[in-house]
Amino acid sequence: MAAMSGGGGSKEGLENTAEEKISKEQFKQFVETIKARDNVRLVMVKLRETAPELYNAMVAERDAYMANGIDKLDQFDKMVAVVGIAHVDGIETNLKERGWAPVSIPCQLR
Question: Which of 39, 60, 89, 102 has the fewest CB atoms found within 10 Å of its own CB?
């Protein structure tokens, strides 16, 4: 994978990154690792600690916005909300604060 630069800036610190190449299999393994919910939680904690303003803008505010939208649909008996894995915990927390309770429904094949 090639390194990217912000254009015209110093490449200091990028030399090794640009020269290191990973295989398709290594990249696939990395993607699968980062998709695990526990790993996403760790990344979100680290982001919140190191860049709280960025975390709030890109995660927390969106979680609240999506939870608000879901909350407005409470008149329906059933609904499905498809969200990115980084938003699941935050949306669940926001909905619990509004009185929602988690429900597990097993998948059924027809």
Answer: 102
